[in-house]
Structures are given as C-alpha cells and as structure tokens.
C-alpha cells in the first residue's frame, strides 16, 4: 500500500507569499504583485485570477496593463536607458554583482515560487535559479573584452519570454543586457512565473539596475513592447506563430531582434549498438516533462535497430517519476526527486491528451502509456494538469505530433530504412535548436550531421542550450535574428563597428558564428 503523503511544512503557497511580502514589501501588496516601471512599483493593471498547476489552488495572477500604460512604461524605460548607458562599466558591474548576491541569498524562496507557479520539481527549480546566478557571474567577471569597441543600443531591450525558464533564460538575459549598458523591459509570461520575476526584479532594482517588469496580453502590449520607436532590440522566446508576427514587425522596422522559436528536436539512431548508454539518458530527457526548448520528443530509428532500441527505451521510460513536487511522507523528509510534476496548466494537459488519443485513432501505435496511479500525490489532490509519459510509434502525418513540438511528456518514434529517410524525418519541422545522432561510426556522424537542420548536433549524447561561453541559436524557422550565448549575447545587445553583420538568421542573410 502506498504511503499517505502530506505537504512539506513551510512550503505552502501562503508561506512563500508571506516570505515575499517580508523580503520585498514594495512589490507585493495584499494578494497581488505590482508592475514595475519608471523605477517605481505601481498598483495598476487588472489582476487576473490564476491557479497553480501543482494542485489548481489560487496563486497571484499577472496585473495586466493596457496599451496606454505600456507606452508610458516604455517611454520611462528610455529615460532610464539614456542615463544608464553613461554609467561607467565598473559601477554597472558592481550593481549587477550585488543583485546576484541578493538572488543567491533568496535562492530557496525563488525556487519555491517556481514550484508553485510553473510546477517545477524542487531539483529543477533550484537549478533554474542557480544557472541564472552562475551564468551572469561569468559575464560580470569577463565583460570587459566583450565590450571592447562596443556601445549600448540606442534604446532599451524589450524581452517577451515563455514561462518555462523565468530565471535561467529571462532574468539571466535581462541582467546581461543591463550589464552591457542597456535599460531592460520584460513582459511577465501570462501562464506563470510572475511572482518569481517580481521578487528577482525587486532585488535588482534595489541595487539600482534599470529594469521594467509589466504584465499584459501579447496582443495588447505588442504595439508598445515591439513596435515602439524607443525600443532598441526585441528579444523573444516562444512559439512560431507569435514569433512570426514579431519577426514581421521588427523586419518592417529594421529593428535589432533575437527570436528563439520552437522546433522539433530529434534523436536519430543509425547503425548503433551501445544501447545501455541510451537507457541511462532517457529519464534525463524527461526533465520538467519535456517542457523545454531543447527537449527531444522525436526518435528516428533505423528499422534494423528498432528491437534493440525498444529493449533499451521501455525500461527507462517506465522508471520516470512524477507527482506533487512538495509531497513528502514525513515532515522531515527531503523533497522528492521527481523527473517532472504537472504541465503548465490543465488545459495543456487536456490538449496533449486529446492529441495523443486522436493520433492513436488515426493509426499511431501506443508503445507506452503511463498512469497517474504510479505518481506521488496528496490525498484528494487535483491532478488535472498532470500527464504521464506516453510513447507513440508512427504518428500520422495529419497529427500535430507528427511535425510539431508537443511541449509535454509525449515521445514519438518514426522508423526508417535509408539515410535519406533518416534525414528527412529528422528535418521534419524545417529547422531545430538541437539534435542528436547515435551511430557507432564517427565517419558516418561527420557525413550526416551537417545535413541535419539543427544549430547543435550531438554525437551519441544530448545537446543543451548551454551556459557561459557556449553559443546558441537555431536553424530554419526555429530562430530569427541574432544568435546568443557567450560573447554573442553581448554583441546582440550592443552596437559595434559600422557595417557589422551579427551572426544569426536575418531576412537578408544567414551568418554562423
């Protein structure tokens, strides 16, 4: 009989909220967070109700501004930018470094907010915070040569990012952009993370870093955050539909841009025998329920290898652990080591479940279907945002699972007989951020890898976004604008020599680093 679980003492949403109000009372008021613009916290905007994906209990929702208020925020950020760009680099470094110290001091609170707001297991929530802090420290320590001969942009950097990595992607980018001499604007993701971002921004603003944090619908705020002439650069992380609209806008305006979009990252298996290594890595590929831009939801497998692949894959996927991220058997137990918790919301779990059912109805073969009965949940807990791992063989071409990233714990497998079929299936989405090819022969990898339309291709091991000096971008429709990572992130948000061509995918050229 499974043990009865309880919420770890001190980890309730009310506990986290009270700690936020004590740490940053200027940014948290009663049951709502405030918007940050013109270097002040404003109780404006219409606060929407929100629920935690963990158990559907209420959490703080985003206080959504209208277009008029967003324009005021952008104009105020330009004023900050004109002052900040003249602050000497040693002073900017000191202020960003002090912000990192403050983030480190409140690391566990930031991680707890990520658990409740976006459903990250404790281990991954802590890692998100740590990667932000450690990544920005790398820039603080080595920024001088990166800025040699460069200057801040003419206006602030506007950030519109997805909800899945508030710290290691969004806050990381914001602090590096500020370190490079720019004022920074960010739109809080609608689906989650607003309290975590509010606390992080509050700590930065106390150190004099010129950040703006606003909430609102993309459609209503896009005119201000994308098209405003004051904006020096637009940085976007999200889906292709929204990214394409932003790409059209910035191309029309000739505006600097960084647009990271989704792609179907694939793992190919061709003339390969070391399947024990594959068994070891499969559970790691399910981190955060594959709600990551560098997740691998598609395996393209040589028919000849399929039996061995399946024998290695199925035991691994059956070992995946999911459940309530804060549920323990005894009060003094450590928080559970889960591979993932809920999806971002119940609607996403239902949508993906419906896509799986439809694909099966149209001929896909279910090789594995997990069950929530094996998960770790509180008695009577709402589990509507949870989806157990699913693996489908041969998704039909009519299914979204055939050509698009599911952004959830659903793997699809496509079988191929020839190298041409392998490459066609691995390039199904017309460009991706990462890919992997498992093959025993290094010469085969060297020959096929350049034909895989991914920015990074691993040999027998996964690739990631990377940290510090590792570059990042995408091929095809998975990326538009400047590439980032390492020195390229600084180059993307600064002005260099006249006529400089930044590495990236642009309307009139593509240049690799």
From TrEMBL:
GO MF annotations in UniProt: oxidoreductase activity, acting on the aldehyde or oxo group of donors, NAD or NADP as acceptor
InterPro entries, per the entry: Ald_DH/histidinol_DH, Ald_DH_C, Ald_DH_N, Aldehyde_DH_dom, Aldehyde_DH_Superfamily
SUPFAM superfamilies hit by this protein: ALDH-like
Keywords: Oxidoreductase
Secretion signal span: none
TM regions (residue ranges): none
Domain annotation Aldehyde dehydrogenase: ranges: 45-487
Protein name: Aldehyde dehydrogenase
Species the sequence originates in: Streptomyces pristinaespiralis (strain ATCC 25486 / DSM 40338 / CBS 914.69 / JCM 4507 / KCC S-0507 / NBRC 13074 / NRRL 2958 / 5647)
Phylogenetic classification of the source organism: Bacteria, Bacillati, Actinomycetota, Actinomycetes, Kitasatosporales
């Amino acid at each position: 009989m499974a043990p009865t679980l309880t919420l770890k003492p001190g980890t309730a949403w009310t506990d986290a909220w009270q700690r936020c109000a004590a740490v940053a009372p200027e940014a948290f008021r009663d049951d709502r967070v405030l918007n940050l613009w013109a270097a002040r916290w404003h109780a404006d905007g219409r606060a929407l109700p929100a629920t935690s994906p963990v158990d559907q209990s209420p959490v703080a929702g985003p206080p959504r501004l209208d277009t008029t208020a967003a324009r005021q925020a952008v104009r105020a950020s330009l004023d900050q930018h004109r002052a900040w760009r003249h602050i000497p680099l040693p002073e900017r470094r000191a202020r960003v470094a002090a912000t990192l110290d403050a983030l480190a001091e409140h690391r566990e609170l930031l991680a707890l907010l990520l658990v409740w707001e976006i459903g990250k297991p404790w281990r991954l929530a802590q890692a998100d915070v740590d990667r932000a802090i450690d990544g920005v420290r790398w820039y603080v320590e080595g920024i001088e040569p990166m800025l040699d001969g460069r200057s801040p942009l003419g206006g602030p950097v506007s950030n519109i990012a997805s909800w899945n990595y508030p710290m290691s992607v969004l806050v990381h980018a914001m602090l590096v952009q500020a370190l490079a001499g720019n004022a920074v604007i960010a739109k809080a993701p609608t689906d989650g993370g607003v309290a975590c971002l509010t606390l992080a921004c509050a700590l930065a603003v106390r150190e004099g870093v010129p950040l703006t944090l606003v909430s609102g619908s993309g459609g209503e705020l896009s005119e201000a955050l994308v098209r405003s002439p004051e904006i020096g650069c637009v940085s976007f992380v999200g889906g292709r539909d929204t990214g394409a609209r932003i790409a059209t806008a910035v191309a029309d305006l000739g505006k600097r841009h960084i647009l990271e979009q989704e792609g179907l990252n694939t793992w190919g298996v061709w003339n390969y025998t070391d399947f024990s290594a594959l068994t070891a890595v499969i559970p790691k590929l399910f981190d955060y329920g594959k709600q990551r831009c560098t997740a691998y939801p598609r395996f393209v497998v040589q028919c000849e290898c399929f039996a061995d692949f399946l024998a290695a894959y199925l035991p691994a996927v059956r070992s995946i652990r999911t459940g309530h991220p804060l549920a323990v058997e005894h009060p003094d137990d450590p928080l559970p080591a889960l591979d993932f918790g809920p999806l971002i919301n119940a609607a996403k779990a239902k949508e993906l479940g419906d896509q799986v059912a439809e694909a099966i109805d149209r001929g896909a073969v279910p090789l594995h279907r997990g069950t929530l009965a094996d998960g770790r949940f509180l008695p009577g807990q709402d589990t509507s945002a949870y989806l157990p791992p699913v693996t489908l063989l041969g998704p039909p071409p009519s299914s979204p699972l055939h050509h698009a990233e599911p952004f959830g714990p659903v793997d699809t497998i496509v079988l191929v007989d020839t190298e041409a079929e392998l490459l066609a299936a691995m390039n199904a989405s017309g460009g991706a951020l990462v890919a992997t090819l498992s093959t025993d022969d290094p010469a085969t990898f060297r020959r096929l890898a350049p034909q895989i339309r991914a920015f990074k291709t691993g040999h027998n091991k996964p690739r990631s976004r990377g940290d510090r000096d590792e570059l990042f971008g995408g091929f095809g429709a998975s990326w538009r604008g400047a590439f980032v990572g390492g020195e390229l992130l600084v180059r993307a948000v600064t002005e260099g020599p006249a006529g400089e061509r930044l590495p990236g995918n642009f309307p009139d050229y593509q240049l690799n680093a």
